[in-house]
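Intended use. Records like the one below are meant for learning the mapping from a protein sequence to its folded structure. Do not use them to infer anything beyond what is encoded.
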Amino acid sequence: MENDKDLIYENSALKKAKNELEGQILVLNRQIIDLKKEVDNYKNTLAKIPPELVDKEFRPDLQARSLRFKMATVLYIDIHGFKEIIAEEDSRDKLDQLDQILVEFDAITEKHKIQKIRTVGDSYMCAGGVPVKNITNPIDVVLAAMEMKDHIEKMRKKNGEVATWQFKMGIHTGPVTATVRGKKKISYDLTGEAVNISTRLASACEPGQIIISDMTHVLVQGYFVCKFHSKVPARYQGFLELYHVSRIKPAYSEDRKTGLYPSKIFNIRYLLRQFTDLQEVILDKLTKELPSYLYYHDVRHTIDVVNQAELIGIGEGVDDESILLLKTAALFHDLGHVIGYDNHEYFGTQIAREMLPKYKYSPEQIDLICEIIMATQMPPKPQTLLQKIICDSDLDYLGRRDFIGVSDTLYKELKEQNKIGSLNDWNKLQVKFLEVHQFYTATSQNLRAVNKKSQIERIKELIVED
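Structure written out for the chain above:
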């Protein structure tokens, strides 16, 4: 009898030990897969990256490119639950469930244009502002973290499958160094302050919380409900203030109950903030691709029209979305010159339709922007207030003190293309145009009309009659 009890006990102990070993093997296999991916990337880097593109300090070992980013936002997710499943018989199912969660995390990062960095064992890391720099990356990362948290909570309510797994999220905005590996399939590894601090924040919070640093808080507090959480000591920085993010602010949330979905007002504020990134891209394109004979329709003119569109729009009392549409239309209104001089307005609308969806503009907003651009086509025939504002912005120089210098560049541009004859011919054409031209908005009429009349008189004195 005693022998039977001993045998049962021995079998039970063996079974428990067997389950523990199988669980450990599953975890090790997962880590081996992750390490194998790293090794493959390493081999691809060595074989495919041209030596002349690699920083010398990396050639002896990693043969990888090193990129520096002054403002990136890192989301570090600390995953707890590996130790608890080792002794469970259904540990393989639990790991499969974790894989499903991580696949959804990947989809969320892609949706918000965030770069996944790595998933190793019990951690997940992604970063905004890498490899493409952008000013909205703190907002993007917080939105992604909230969506990830919501996905976990929905799975738990549905079937309790993720009860084993606990997720703690830390977010910090700061400088990072990205090591780029691979050519066909590029991967990134991050080091630097933002990585170290986000990792620390994740360890400082409770499961299910999203904790952000004071740096990230400054950049996102206008959009999200953030409450002070605690302070932690930081090397060379004294103490870091930490904040708990719970939801989008009610005034900016489509669903005021959950605070998960951005409203139209949120999106407009987001796009206005993002405009800086879009403007940098377009101005760079203009600088590199505009024909050399465009002395008037150059980058300076585009910047001028963007600024005047905002100023006149404010003077006319239009709302924030209208300001966004005006500035975006002004940015694209002469971009079509990179394709052709004639019909450049139409070409500009085609480029806008291709680019703006990537910057989260809605189809309705894009249609309105293109209509505003086409209103600048000569002779202008604006119908709406926004079309009148863009027309006044485009020809604002007609009533300014710098009229002479600006008009000289336009003459030079037309002359080089054989579109105008002598300077005397140009002066006659200017007088004719100025006498029929009108400013459409009350703001421009009050600011520019008087000076325009004095310019007409001045040019008439220069004309030599045949």
